[in-house]
């Protein structure tokens, strides 16, 4: 089972690219095969095949004539042998034996020549078929070569299609491999825990079985055998202790498993977030452990994120008094890419923050739980991003953002902001 939501799209693009590769090969083969420049080669192949047919036909005729001549010699030899085979003179002077040997040799030559003739006829048949095949190929070529330009256009089209798919696949590979890399240790730990949990459950089942056998034992000897079996299997003679120990370990493993699943989900969520805009609870980022620290953090975070997606910062009205600055002065702290709004006096910023982030792919950076606004889309869909501020750095893990504090009190960028949705 895949834990990476990018796998489906990556596999789809891979399959499409393989299919397009096949179409490219087919188009190129047709384009190159029916190139008009190949016509002379095919015409020469027909001529060569016809010449070969003439040669083997002459060979068949020569073999047939030789076969006829040998047949005639064999007939004459057999007639001479038949005429003299009972002759006393022939038996005495050995001429009958010579005639018999001559007949046998004549038959052998005839048989060999017959085989040669059959071989020649087979060659003639193959040559005739080859002529037909070459002529058919030339005919097909003449028909298909009229589509040569169309095959070329198809080749260009499919090569362009392949290039676009390859680019899309390359683009899809980046987030997939990044997520795979971060998920690797978590998935490995989850697989190990699954094995441990399965092993514990088997041990519990075996121990329960032993406990059942123990309860059914009718005498001390039977109980001793069960205890001995438990000792050999679990290094503990009492099945009940095995069950209690395994259940305790199982609960610990299951807690760890749930934490890993939660961690896996957080990683996947962070990597797959679609962000079209970010609304920052400005006043919330001006505090560290309850102490007001000014606007340095919120300015650094907002300016950094605004390089990649639209960012709006909303402050409570009290920021003017705490900063000793007016709205315009506060606005000038940020880059021109950041929108800054300070709500009216005696007005809380929470309601405006949630309304500004009402869009489907808009997120809020704040540690506020917004318990008074549980029906707002941002809260219902859990589109809030938490942060941590220390004396050394600001961390926004869900965005993969870590900005260190410089000696002069400014922040250095240590991570790239998220990609905005297309």
Structure description:
The chain has 422 residues and is an alpha/beta fold. It folds into three domains: 6-153, Orthogonal Bundle (Helix Hairpins); 179-271; 273-413, Rossmann fold. The protein contains twelve helices and eleven strands. It has helices spanning 6-33, 39-84, 88-93, 95-144, 148-216, 220-234, 239-272, 296-305, 319-323, 327-331, 350-356, 377-380; strands spanning 277-281, 287-288, 291-292, 311-315, 338-342, 362-365, 384-385, 388-389, 393-396, 401-405, 411-413. The strands form three sheets. A five-stranded parallel sheet has the order 5-4-1-6-7, sandwiched between helices. Strands 8-9-10-11 form a four-stranded antiparallel sheet, with helices on one face. Strand 8 and strand 9 form a beta hairpin. Helix 5 (148-216) runs antiparallel to helix 7 (239-272).
List keywords for this structure.
4-stranded antiparallel β-sheet, 5-stranded parallel β-sheet, Helix Hairpins, 3 domains, disordered C terminus, elongated, 11 strands, 422 residues, alpha/beta, Rossmann fold
| CATH architect. name of the largest domain | Orthogonal Bundle
Shape: elongated
Number of helices: 12
The assigned structural class equals alpha/beta
CATH C-level label of the largest domain: Mainly Alpha
Largest β sheet strand count, sense and barrel closure: 5 strands, parallel
Termini distance? Answer: 28 Å
Reported by name, the CATH topology of the largest domain is Helix Hairpins
- Give the SSE order as H and E letters: HHHHHHHEEEHEHHEHEHEEEEE
Q: Classify the beta-strand content into a percent band.
A: 5-15%
């Amino acid at each position: 089972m895949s834990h990476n939501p990018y796998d489906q799209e990556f596999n789809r693009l891979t399959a499409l690219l393989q299919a397009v590769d096949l179409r490219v090969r087919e188009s190129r083969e047709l384009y190159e095969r029916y190139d008009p420049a190949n016509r002379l080669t095919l015409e020469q192949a027909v001529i060569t095949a016809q010449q070969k047919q003439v040669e083997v036909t002459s060979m068949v005729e020569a073999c047939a004539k030789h076969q006829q001549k040998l047949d005639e010699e064999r007939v004459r030899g057999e007639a001479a042998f038949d005429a003299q085979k009972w002759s006393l003179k022939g038996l005495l002077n050995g001429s009958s034996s010579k005639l018999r040997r001559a007949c046998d040799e004549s038959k052998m030559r005839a048989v060999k020549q017959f085989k040669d003739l059959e071989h020649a006829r087979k060659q003639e048949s193959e040559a005739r078929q080859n002529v037909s095949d070459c002529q058919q190929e030339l005919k097909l070529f003449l028909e298909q070569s009229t589509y040569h330009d169309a095959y070329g256009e198809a080749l260009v089209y499919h090569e362009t299609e392949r290039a676009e798919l390859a680019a899309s696949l390359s683009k899809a590979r980046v987030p997939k491999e990044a997520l795979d890399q971060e998920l690797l240790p978590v998935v490995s730990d989850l697989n190990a825990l699954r094995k441990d949990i399965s092993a514990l459950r088997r041990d519990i089942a075996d121990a329960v079985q032993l406990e059942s056998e123990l309860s059914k034992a009718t005498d001390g000897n039977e109980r001793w055998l069960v205890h001995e079996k438990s000792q050999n299997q679990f290094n503990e003679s009492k099945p009940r202790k095995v069950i209690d120990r395994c259940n305790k370990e199982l609960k610990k493993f299951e807690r760890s498993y749930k934490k890993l699943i939660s961690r896996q989900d957080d990683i996947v969520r962070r990597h797959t977030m679609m962000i079209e805009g970010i609304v920052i609870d400005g006043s919330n980022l001006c505090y560290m452990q309850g102490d007001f620290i000014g606007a340095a953090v919120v300015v650094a975070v907002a300016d950094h994120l605004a390089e990649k997606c639209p960012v709006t910062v909303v402050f409570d009205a009290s920021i003017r008094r705490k900063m000793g600055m007016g709205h315009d002065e506060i606005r000038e702290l940020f880059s021109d890419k950041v929108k800054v709004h300070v709500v009216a006096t005696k007005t809380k910023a929470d309601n405006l923050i949630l309304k500004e982030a009402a869009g489907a792919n808009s997120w809020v950076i704040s540690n506020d739980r917004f318990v008074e606004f549980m029906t707002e889309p941002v809260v219902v869909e859990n589109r809030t991003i938490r942060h941590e501020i220390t004396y050394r750095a600001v961390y926004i893990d869900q965005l993969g953002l870590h900005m260190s504090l410089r000696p002069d009190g400014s922040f250095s960028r240590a991570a790239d902001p998220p990609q905005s949705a297309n």
